[in-house]
Amino acid sequence: xxxxxxxxxxxxxxxxxxxxxxxxxxxxxxxxxxxxxxxxxxxxxxxxxxxxxxxxxxxxxxxxxxxxxxxxxxxxxxxxxxxxxxxxxxxxxxxxxxxxxxxxxxxxxxxxxxxxxxxxxxxxxxxxxxxxxxxxxxxxxxxxxxxxxxxxxxxxxxxxxxxxxxxxxxxxxxxxxxxxxxxxxxxxxxxxxxxxxxxxxxxxxxxxxxxxxxxxxxxxxxxxxxxxxxxxxxxxxxx
Length: 239
Ligand SMILES: Nc1ncnc2c1ncn2[C@@H]1O[C@H](COP(=O)(O)OP(=O)(O)OP(=O)(O)O)[C@@H](O)[C@H]1O
Ligand SMILES: [Mg+2]
What we know:
The chain is of the alpha/beta class and 239 residues long. The protein has helices at residues 44-51, 74-80, 97-104, 112-125, 127-131, 142-154, 172-187, 199-205, 223-227, 230-236, and strands at 4-15, 18-29, 33-37, 59-64, 67-68, 82-84, 160-164, 191-196, 208-213, 216-222.
């Protein structure tokens, strides 16, 4: 593979006596979409939160672009360019779409002109947000809120974008829309780490994939290989 942008070794997270993540290794190649799939409770969200510095690691090392960020504070990690998309419903509901996007740029020190250009880019990726720029985020549909959450994360100028189940609770046609946009953002060079329960769509989209079960990586490979793997088909695709 290309040089990994993110490399994780022996990551473990416990909640009290619950071993949520039990020593996993991950390599995310620069410029690729990597997906982490698995059932409820497998440890997917915990893995993302550990990468973002939001839960304490019991063990493990995280290298981002060669730098050890294992013990870094969440705002430093975001500042470095590792940005997690907030849960769709976590947009600031009493602020407008545009204000939410402006807040996404809070870690940046460049000027208003650069931020305005990036807002225009988000609007071109998600034209529905442009149409609703002045509308309160709380009045958006679920799909639009998910788009806004992604747009807000993009405003931080990520080098690696983390997403936790962006398809959750959305109609299939909206999911298609969002996955198409992720593909377009990736085609422009952004590296993406996508956690999904929508295994089929995620494996179709991603170049590389990991399957997590009870806190352990049990399978890994290219998205195409895992789509065709009988174990994946039996456990996750209903074949
Ligand atoms: N704050 C917490 N305190 C105690 N246990 C927790 C906590 N958060 C998660 N867990 C447990 O850790 C394990 C992994 O949870 P996690 O949320 O990472 O799974 P997940 O793969 O994201 O699941 P889902 O697909 O349902 O979102 C589960 O057994 C869960 O019950
Ligand atoms: Mg989860």
